[in-house]
């Protein structure tokens, strides 16, 4: 097996079970491993560190998999890891919920692999060359474990470019999902688009937060920004909101939300949709003197990396400032960031700055995070990406 030798002292993070070896930490590579090949990693004193997957194209040159030298990375190893990840989540699958993340990359010791279950279908994303090399094994194990109607791949992410991989979308097994697949989350039914929808088809990472936010909306006028296919909107309507306005720039998202409204037999008379740029629409609402009781901000990732954090902080601040201007005393803002580069303390500071600029006094009354099927491995804090705050205007 090919060997990777690290520079002196560069094994410390790896021995603490962090799964990434950066290219600058590598002293020599013995052999000529191709991208996606399993290698043995040693420190400069030739002591075994871990098994990992090598990729010369990537800044993360080795993604570590296993720290016990007695457990080589073979087909049985890959199947065991898939089995373990799925087993840890089976309790989340009920008659009220059939949308679950079954595999969450590094958190499940499977760096570069995302598997989401949407009803009878699985949606798979592959970000790394190591997972790409064993795709057939992974698909076969998922079929044996879950017997899905179909498995569809949505590997069309920037991360693949960093691994030297082209985009890959298409059917991997069974039946191709229809344009709209029926699923249920928190007892609410959705029709989602696996093939063309954002990410892998649906944002199941907000499952808990939708339910928590809905506890505050009864009898309230709600503005749901970046509503996508209606997760927060439908929970708000089901929980008795007096009116909900849903805003998104995507025509497909708005179309799907309207289908979901009918699907759940919710009162369309108290709901309206707006296809618009959220920032521009918030500015327009401010100019018109509109006010809401509850506002939800669930924007896309503004900070894909730490280098983009300053620019992202300004964007988050301006967005939250515009929303706070539409709230009066007692009003609530549920605001989120899915940027892994922004931690919760930084996010609090950004929202505090937004409140100062909006001349609003605020209180943080709840913190939101990602659900248990998106766990954060203790040795990989980078896996904690979703955070949110429930803010009350005093």
UniProtKB/TrEMBL annotation:
<keyword id="KW-0698">rRNA processing</keyword>
<dbReference type="InterPro" id="IPR002478">
    <property type="entry name" value="PUA"/>
</dbReference>
<dbReference type="InterPro" id="IPR041532">
    <property type="entry name" value="RlmI-like_PUA"/>
</dbReference>
<keyword id="KW-0694">RNA-binding</keyword>
<keyword id="KW-0489">Methyltransferase</keyword>
<dbReference type="InterPro" id="IPR036974">
    <property type="entry name" value="PUA_sf"/>
</dbReference>
<keyword id="KW-0808">Transferase</keyword>
<dbReference type="GO" id="GO:0008168">
    <property type="term" value="F:methyltransferase activity"/>
</dbReference>
<comment type="similarity">
    <text>Belongs to the methyltransferase superfamily. RlmI family.</text>
</comment>
<dbReference type="InterPro" id="IPR019614">
    <property type="entry name" value="SAM-dep_methyl-trfase"/>
</dbReference>
<dbReference type="GO" id="GO:0005737">
    <property type="term" value="C:cytoplasm"/>
</dbReference>
<dbReference type="GO" id="GO:0032259">
    <property type="term" value="P:methylation"/>
</dbReference>
<dbReference type="Pfam" id="PF10672">
    <property type="entry name" value="Methyltrans_SAM"/>
</dbReference>
<feature type="domain" description="PUA">
    <location>
        <begin position="2"/>
        <end position="87"/>
    </location>
</feature>
<keyword id="KW-0963">Cytoplasm</keyword>
<dbReference type="InterPro" id="IPR029063">
    <property type="entry name" value="SAM-dependent_MTases_sf"/>
</dbReference>
<protein>
    <submittedName>
        <fullName>Class I SAM-dependent rRNA methyltransferase</fullName>
    </submittedName>
</protein>
<dbReference type="GO" id="GO:0003723">
    <property type="term" value="F:RNA binding"/>
</dbReference>
<dbReference type="Pfam" id="PF17785">
    <property type="entry name" value="PUA_3"/>
</dbReference>
<dbReference type="InterPro" id="IPR015947">
    <property type="entry name" value="PUA-like_sf"/>
</dbReference>
<keyword id="KW-0949">S-adenosyl-L-methionine</keyword>
<dbReference type="GO" id="GO:0006364">
    <property type="term" value="P:rRNA processing"/>
</dbReference>
């Amino acid at each position: 097996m090919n060997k990777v030798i690290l520079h002196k002292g560069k094994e410390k993070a790896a021995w603490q079970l962090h799964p990434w070896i950066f290219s600058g930490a590598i002293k020599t590579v013995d052999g000529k491993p191709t991208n996606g090949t399993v290698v043995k990693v040693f420190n400069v004193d030739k002591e075994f560190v871990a098994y990992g997957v090598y990729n010369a194209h990537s800044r993360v040159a080795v993604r570590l998999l296993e720290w016990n030298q007695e457990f080589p990375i073979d087909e049985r190893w890959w199947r065991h890891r898939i089995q373990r990840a799925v087993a840890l989540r089976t309790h989340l699958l009920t008659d009220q919920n059939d949308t679950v993340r079954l595999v969450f990359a590094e958190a499940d010791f499977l760096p570069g692999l995302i598997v989401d279950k949407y009803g009878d279908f699985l949606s798979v994303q592959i970000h790394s060359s190591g997972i790409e090399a064993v795709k057939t094994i992974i698909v076969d194990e998922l079929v044996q474990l879950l017997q899905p109607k179909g498995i569809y791949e949505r590997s069309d992410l920037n991360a693949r470019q960093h691994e030297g991989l082209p985009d890959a979308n298409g059917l991997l097994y069974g039946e191709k999902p229809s344009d709209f697949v029926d699923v249920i989350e928190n007892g609410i039914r959705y029709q989602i688009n696996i093939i063309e929808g954002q990410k892998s088809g649906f944002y199941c990472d907000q499952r808990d937060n939708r339910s928590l936010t809905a506890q505050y909306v009864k009898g309230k006028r709600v503005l749901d920004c970046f509503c996508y296919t209606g997760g927060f909107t439908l929970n708000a309507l089901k929980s008795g909101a007096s009116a909900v306005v849903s805003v998104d720039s995507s025509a497909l998202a708005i179309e799907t939300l309207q289908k979901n409204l009918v699907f759940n037999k919710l009162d369309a008379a108290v709901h309206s949709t707006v296809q618009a740029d959220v920032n521009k629409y918030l500015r327009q609402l401010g100019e018109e003197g509109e006010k809401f009781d509850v506002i939800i901000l669930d924007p896309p990732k503004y900070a894909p990396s730490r280098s983009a954090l300053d620019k992202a902080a300004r964007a988050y601040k301006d967005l939250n400032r515009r929303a706070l201007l539409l709230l009066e005393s007692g009003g609530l803002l549920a605001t989120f960031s899915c940027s892994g580069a922004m931690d919760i303390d930084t996010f609090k500071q950004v929202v505090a700055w937004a409140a100062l600029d909006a001349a609003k006094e605020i209180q943080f009354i709840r913190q939101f995070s990602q659900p248990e099927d998106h766990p954060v491995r203790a040795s990989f804090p980078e896996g904690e990406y979703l955070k949110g705050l429930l803010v009350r205007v005093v």
